Amino acid sequence: MKKDLLKLLDLSGEEILKILDTADQLKFSQKHGIAHDKLKGKTLAMIFEKNSTRTRVSFETGMYQLGGHALFLSSKESQIGRGEPVEDTARVLLRYCDGIMIRTFAQEEVETLAAHANIPVINGLTDFCHPCQVLADLMTVREHKTVLEGLKMCYIGDGNNMANSLIVGGLKTGMEVAVACPEGYDPHPDVLAFTKSDPNFKFTLCRDPKEAAVGADVVFTDVWASMGQEEEKAVREKAFVGYQVNKELMALTNPGCMVQHCLPAHRGEEITADVFEEHAEEIFDEAENRLHAQKAVMYLLMGGED
Ligand code: CP
Ligand code: NVA
What we know:
Elements (H helix, E strand, L loop, with lengths): L12 H19 L11 E6 L5 H12 L3 E6 L11 H11 L2 E5 L3 H10 L4 E3 L7 H15 L6 E5 L4 H12 L3 E5 L8 H7 L7 E4 L2 H5 L4 E4 L11 H7 L7 H4 L7 E4 L11 H6 L1 H22 L5
Parallel strand pairs: 1-2, 1-3, 3-4, 5-6, 5-8, 6-7, 8-9
Helix pairs in contact: 1-5, 1-12, 2-12, 3-4, 5-6, 5-12
Bound molecules: phosphoric acid mono(formamide)ester and norvaline.
């Protein structure tokens, strides 16, 4: 049966770790010039209904490095933007391609696409989640800290797609997760239900960023107004006052605490310029690891496994 990557809720902790191990191996091969053209002759269709820099470039480059080819399909220039049903798009693309990556608004669209395509579907971001980003994030934290289990992850800001995936990915890999969001901007109810599904999970949701930051080993944040929420920008700027990753907040964390940001970052809003620059090396490692983590996902899902 074909496998997809639609959301981290669908994966076990072991499956997440297997992706991270494969990503480490593929990164090693790429850095050492070892051939790893494991998807030779395969094609990935990439559907974008929202903007992107990292996701597009890392999937396209990753597919090329694996010996395959990626096609960029913008909703504006394809029939998707003119209302062709996603079910039909799925049934067409499966006749040409070996996998589909999609970035869109509703999670349901990705689930429907996957239900109608007998080829792997990879979620490149929805309003609900951003699984590829969080695989890269976990890979980066593990690279810097050696293990994930027992570390404390803190997330400050909007309970958005990044928060949803970080909570699930962090808890499934044995991390403690503390989230601080303003009232009205909590993570998705399905994700909050998941945090209660295992008595071993260490999860807290609070209103005070300082409370969440105490003893953290890695601090995450993200934009206050995500793609599609541009009209809410002014309201959100007021609601998120105080939900900023700055020096004062970082003083409460553990020594050597990392800072991660999926990018693009908004200096002076969710993060200060000084904290960003102090942790720039880790943040750009995180951006680089999109390439390696997604190569692992494509290799494992698109039939490249030996
Ligand atoms: N972090 C991330 O997904 O970046 P892009 O929006 O540039 O793809
Ligand atoms: N939460 C952000 C993430 C961007 C990579 C958004 O959805 O716009």
